[in-house]
Design a protein that fits this description.
The structure holds 2 protein chains of 2 kinds. By secondary structure, chain A is mostly helical. Helices cover 87% and strands 0% of the residues of chain A. Chain B is of the alpha/beta class. Chain B has a domain at 8-83 and 188-211: Rossmann fold, CATH 3.40.50.300. The longest helix of chain B is centred in the last third of the chain and has 16 residues, at 169-184. The chains are: A mainly alpha, B alpha/beta.
Chain lengths: 222, 211
């Protein structure tokens, strides 16, 4: 059971490595959009500092959505998904391998590059570490929730619009708690409550979404 | 003498119906198949052969009727699905992986048949292509790679949808032998094919979906 999981995990990392250009696309999007803001707003340090968390979080949210599109599509199109449903290991367990691999490939680089971009937006040190922390807690949730939507729409040819309508509302709680945590930090208050909420949402997503994803994929195969 | 399968069983289908876009593809379909038997599905294009095979694999739900495995509803027997080896229209191989990587992946997920990847490569004539990305293979070579999963499994129920599309004659002969071996081990096989397949000496039931 675990060997199959690791095989899928390794396979996805290897495939991502061989399709670097596709994988790197959301990251480039993330960097470009954020670096456009200081250019458009000008050298208004106070304003940039104030809206920086919102800019970074909204862009991270959109970049995640952009990157998710490939999560199940190739498996669906080349028939690997059909083969996966026939395995002894439950599909709900196998999809976690795909999502974790996907997060390593797209979520983690995004977080690693965030401190640099935050400096660009004049974010002070303690806000930067809080920003990274919220992204660490938040992006896995975004991947898990997004995967449910992807699994539902993978069989549709034009699933893009439906996908955003489906997923973005579910992303809002994560966005609100993350930006609240950052606001509190900027004003010198504690952000433990917001972080605890984000952790709770993450735990909820980890426990429930694999089953939803597996069920949605089976519906898509039908 | 080949080693017999450790797990096999009897499949029966009762009053199966399938609709597509409000049209009846087939209805009141009943048949059964026992170990060492082949069910050869025939029928014109669009008569529902692929849909039937997909229903048997659990990818599609039947609109009516029941599938029974060993006299139990198949949907409630996880072993039934785990015992299926399916080769459909889609090859189920990854373009970005090399031939060898694809085979290793199949083998690690199969029910651990003790056969070396190297031997499989030699037998399907892709030994020299082991390190080539699957994307660069021809359609026939990809098909052979997809069918190679049958060589590395202990599953006793094979479901093959047009398995010999774009294969050359020598490869067709090779996989015919594989099918014969499978049957002699106590396996079940359901297939569709527009190729002439030599299944002489085997117990084949022909089933026409068009009627």
């Amino acid at each position: 059971m675990l060997t199959t999981w690791t095989q899928i995990f390794k396979r996805d990392l290897l495939i991502a490595f061989r399709r670097r250009s596709e994988v790197i696309h959301p990251l480039i999007f993330f960097v470009m959009v954020i670096s456009l803001f200081p250019l458009a707003i000008g050298d208004d340090k106070v304003l940039l500092q104030k809206i920086a968390p919102a800019i970074i979080w909204v862009t991270a949210l959109l970049a995640t959505m952009l990157s998710l599109d490939n999560l199940f599509r190739s498996d669906f199109e080349d028939g690997s998904l059909e083969q996966m449903t026939l395995l002894k290991t439950p599909l709900s367990f196998l999809v976690t391998a795909k999502i974790i691999a996907h997060w390593f490939i797209t979520g983690l680089p995004l977080i690693l590059i965030t401190p640099l971009l935050a400096v660009l937006l004049y974010l002070p040190g303690e806000s930067i570490s809080m920003l990274v922390l919220t992204l660490l807690l938040g992006t896995p949730t975004l991947s898990l929730i997004g995967a449910v939507g992807i699994a539902l729409t993978v069989a549709l040819r034009q699933g893009g619009v439906i996908l955003s309508l489906l997923i973005l509302p579910l992303y809002i709680p994560v966005l609100i708690f993350a930006t609240l945590a950052l606001q509190n930090t900027a004003q010198g208050f504690s952000a433990v409550a917001q972080l605890a909420m984000m952790l709770a949402i993450l735990v909820l997503a980890i426990t429930l979404s694999p089953f939803a994803i597996a069920a949605a994929l089976k519906v898509s195969l039908n | 003498m080949e080693k017999k399968y450790t797990y096999t069983g009897h499949l029966s289908v009762e009053n199966l119906a399938c609709w597509r876009n409000e049209q009846v593809l087939f209805s009141d379909l009943s048949f059964s198949i026992s170990p060492e038997n082949i069910l050869f599905l025939e029928g014109e294009n669009g008569s529902g052969k692929t849909s039937l095979l997909r229903i048997l694999c659990g990818f599609r739900l039947p609109d009516e009727g029941e599938i029974n495995w060993e006299n139990e509803t198949a949907a409630s027997v996880p072993e039934y699905f785990q015992n299926i080896s399916y080769v459909g229209h889609k090859n189920g191989i990854k373009d970005e992986l090399t031939v060898e990587e694809n085979l290793n992946l199949m083998r690690s997920m199969a029910t651990a048949e003790e056969i070396k990847t190297e031997d499989v490569l030699k037998q399907i004539g892709l030994f020299k292509k082991a390190d080539v990305l699957s994307r660069q293979l021809s359609a026939g070579q990809k098909r052979k790679l997809a069918l190679a999963r049958l060589m590395m499994t202990n599953n006793s129920f094979w479901v093959l949808d047009e398995p010999f599309t774009s294969l050359d004659t020598a490869s067709v002969r090779f996989f015919e032998l594989l099918i014969k071996k499978h049957i002699s081990r106590g396996g079940l096989l359901i297939l569709t094919s527009h190729h002439d397949i030599d299944l002489s000496g085997l117990s084949v039931t022909h089933f026409n979906l068009s009627n």
